[in-house]
Amino acid sequence: xxxxxxxGLEVVQNGDAGPAVHFCYLADPKREGLLVELIEIAGLRPxxxxxxxxxxxxxxxxxxxxxxxxx
Length: 71
Hints:
Radius of gyration: 16 Å
Number of strands: 3
Largest sheet: 3 strands, antiparallel
Order of helices and strands: HEEEH
Strand content: 25-35%
Distance between the termini: 25 Å
Number of helices: 2
């Protein structure tokens, strides 16, 4: 969050959605309408790694895929 604020983004809302979910929305005063969401959900990194790994070898076919989260 501090790194984003250092670029000029301003926190316009933040909060928690339970003990393991933290979020904030940032706006750029120089770009009207731009809103960035940062969200931290404990334990989701393995799922995002699994998605990134699958995407790196995707050839464009079979666009709808089922995944089994490695959580």
